[in-house]
Task: structure prediction
Amino acid sequence: MIEFDLDRGSGVSTYLQLVHQVKQALRLGTLRPGDQLPTAREVVESLAINPNTVLKAYRELEREGLVEGRPGMGTFVRQGVAGPTLAEHTRLRRTLEAWVREARAAGLDQEDLRALFAVVLADAAKEGAA
Amino acid sequence: MTPALEATGLGVRYRRTWALRDCSLAVPAGRVAALVGPNGAGKTTLMHAAVGLLRPARGSVRVAGEAAFVAQDKPLYDSFTVAEMLAFGRRMNRRWDGDAAAGRLGALGIPLDRKVSGLSGGQQAQVAVTLALAVRPDLLVLDEPLANLDPLARHDVMRSIMAEVAERELTVLLSSHVVSDLEETCDWLVVLNGGRLQVSGDIEELLDGHRVLTGPDGASAAGVRVVSASRTGRQVSMLVRGACPPDPRWRARRPGLEELVMGYLRSPESAALPDLTGVGA
Result:
């Protein structure tokens, strides 16, 4: 089960925050195929947000093929979603952790790490596009 | 689709003064509409006209189904217990869901044998909202429901209203002059200013359809619909509706709800109103 929280004042619209949090939970494996998302009422009762916002986020996730609504039952994570990524996840995370330790030992601080990671990520995206 | 609330050419006059004039709007069913504007803008007048507490001098206002109204000074009797308020509500209304009301108050931990005067401000607001919801209204109209409440009580009141909206097709119209209270909860915006309607529309569409531009004094804004503009030194900042100007010196971004509201309130002559024919869609 996923519990949403909001970063009010982040400038990111509420419905997008919900969408991102579901995707993040899928990546991290806290949400798995077959898991049910909280009902609109449950989300609304904890966050005091408009129920249409929750429904909009769930529609978006459904449109992207990540979840499916089952009439009268709720919204569920679809089978097959995030499967291969999830298997690789633990291994990649270990490699990244080792890299972070190495960078710290070399004297890089939190900001340096973020900047370096962002640059590499942007370069990789460029290469992919070329 | 029939709008939950529809006003056509609505005008309300107190003696010689027009509190509201030429107001035409339609709020679709199932929406949570924020009614904002400065003091004296006509917010309470519009709500009173909507629930039939006053007769318009011009035009008409129509609600699809039953409306329930919670006035700003929470209309409860101090010497009554909560249970007596519920019994009173049952006798005053044809439609009355007493079980749901008692269940709601129980879930909120409000003791039925407590006198109204012994409840906190937040609890009194919850009781007033519960009584209004017990009528099973199609439209719930709340005049400043969050005024005088602490942040926690505000959150709790909005949570229970939102839960009711999630449960069934309920349309809500609520007024406030604290726009930040409404950002997460409302999906429809109505702006009144000096008795005139300035804005009525879907909040996401309104925010998508406007831009905040900043640029140097002298950058060309030809052909742009400027809602309001301000100048500091050599920099100009504007709220515009629709497309951005081609001049590359402008930096553009999507406005926040508060910026949008303030932009319109600063320029009472600007308006963002849909064609009434397109509203129900």
About this structure: Confidence is low (pLDDT under 50) at residues 276-281 of chain B. Helices of chain B lie at 43-50, 82-92, 98-107, 121-134, 151-167, 203-208, 257-266. The first strand of chain B starts at residue 5 and ends at 14. The interface with chain A takes residues 30-32, 155-156, 158-160, 162-163, 165-167, 183-187, 204, 256 of chain B (CB under 8 Å).
